[in-house]
Fold:
Amino acid sequence: MRREASARESGFAPEDPGFVADPYLVYAELRERAPILYDEVTDHWLVSRHRDVNGLLRDRRFGRTYHHMASHADMGRPEEPSEQAPFWHLIRSGILDMEPPDHTRVRKLVSNAFTPRMVEGLRGRIQTMTEALVDGVAGAGEVDLMKAIAEPLPVAVIAEMLGIPQSDRRLLRPWSAEICLMYELNPPEEYARRAVAASLEFSEYLRALSRERRERPADDLISALAEVLVEGDSLTEDELIGTCVLLLNAGHEATVNVTGNGWWALFRNPDQLSLLRTDPSLVPRAVEELMRYDTPLQMFERWVLTDSEICGVPVPKGAELGLLFGSANRDPDVFDRPDELNLAREHNPHLSFGAGIHFCLGAPLARLELEISFSTVLRRLPRMELVAEPRWKPGYIIRGLEELRVTC
Ligand code: HEM
Structure:
């Protein structure tokens, strides 16, 4: 394939609000045209088909990071500006940006908190929190569902699991939002400055809290991790902080958008919404379908760690892959009538939680939160209606609604 064959010719334009609002026709063209296409604007090799995205996520020749084995220069990449060091240090101290053996060691320590059994133990508490949020909007007339329920619930759940004091929780979402700006493609200088400032404040906050918990342990995840720190060298303090930041960010950004994108999809498909209202037992399956139909995290990246051939195309070491989850989830080779929302869909191997060693650690928790949130809103607000077509946030990678105005 010639390098000039570009994804732009098919309409790939993540900086364009029109594309962000509905990228799915462009994805169909990308899948049709070639399994891998270069995008010269973002300098990514885009992979659009389900089989390939799934395979590449599991292939160790491609990494979330290359720092375990190579320098920027070895990979032919520029040095990072030194003023961004606090941000990158924080991100690389969390398991999502580690590779084995560090990844294996730290993931094992954290994963105990996310076993299906541990998560199921949170059901009652999550239900209570959801009921309280719905109490706040029931009969209130017009509200923004994002601000009222979609955003506060997952933040509250992960904050409580970690043991962040109630009075500090209002700090979390702004910090997380500033840090997540850097996950977008080619972030401008201003985003980097904001992300660095948030990284410094967030790290200092967690450093102080974890030291306090080491002195006076409580029944929460920060205390459990701080204890591992004291007992041996299996977790460094920076890894503890990086992983807590990751849990706080990953623990709610996507869940917020499944709720918003999901309700917007239901409003656009009234037959499916009434099906769900008549048969709430469909909710767990509906959650999977809503995650497939309008994927909250549209693209994840991988570094090419060694010269490789991908779908017959030579891709050099140091190149960056853009794995298009949103496209893989609409691949007609895997999903029957992929552009239809079918809440009763049985065969649904969507990739929204990823695959391979970085498969979402919080998937059981996300599923439980979403199941409780959708069922409670369906039950308690049976006449909830859409007021106006929502606006999308500009972000493409973390893709979600600015607001979703409804009457309750
Ligand atoms: C619907 C909501 C969610 C979605 C769609 C989602 C999606 C993902 C995806 C796609 C990855 C892998 C990224 C990659 O391979 O590059 C991931 C990793 C991760 N997620 Fe989630 N996530 C969600 C909710 C959560 C929650 C609630 C938590 C925790 C409280 C969480 C914690 C994590 C962690 C810690 C990782 C890193 C795992 C590793 O690197 O081993 N996520 N998530």
About this structure: The radius of gyration is 21 Å.
